[in-house]
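Whether sequence alone determines local backbone shape is best considered at the level of individual chains. Part of our work consisted of pairing the sequence of a single chain with a tokenised description of its backbone. This step matters because it turns folding into a mapping between discrete strings. For completeness, the protein is quoted in full, as a sequence line and a line of structure tokens:

_____
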Amino acid sequence: MTVQNNILIRLQKQGRGKIYCLNDFLDLGSRNAIGVVLYRLTLKGILRRIGPGVYDYPKISSIVGPLSPDIKASLDTYARKNGCVFTPHPLSAAHSLHLTTQVPAILTYLTDGISHTLTLGGIKIQLIHACPKKMIGAGKKVGIVIQALRYFGNKNIPNAVLKKIAANLNKNDQKDLQAIRLKTIKGLIPYIDKILSYA
């Protein structure tokens, strides 16, 4: 069975809407062979190239045709492809936790990789390099909490805000937050302790 047939079988088994990079198929053939197949499947319209080295097997609507890819899943695949980690920008994190009504003008994430801008699925995304202490918890809910706390900067964070954050944490989130409290920015520790006391 050819590399192309094996990739097509995998696409069909996993279903439409999945996001892929070349690395996801390395068990099916050489890097060069997979690259050629992905290029051919893109030309045929089976796969869609939605960003640098990122492809989707798009969901199809009978009314509008191919649907837009999931941006979070697209970014996760881009991170997997490049061996880096992303976490929401402080403003985005605070907005996602309903702590502010401000909306970022451009979708922005922090990364342990280099700062750059890319387009995924037609959406412009800004990636900003951040030091390890600012990236603590990336990929987990507590990472969003850390960034939301950073959004307030040097301002005193109201107890009402800390209680609202605490109310959204489950037991595992609380354990994760406890585990990273001494690894993140020192100024956030008192607020983390309050959140844990309210949880």
User: Anything to note?
Assistant: The chain has two domains: 3-71, 85-198. The domain at 3-71 is CATH 1.10.10.10 (Arc Repressor Mutant, subunit A). Residues 24 and 111 are 22 Å apart (CA to CA).
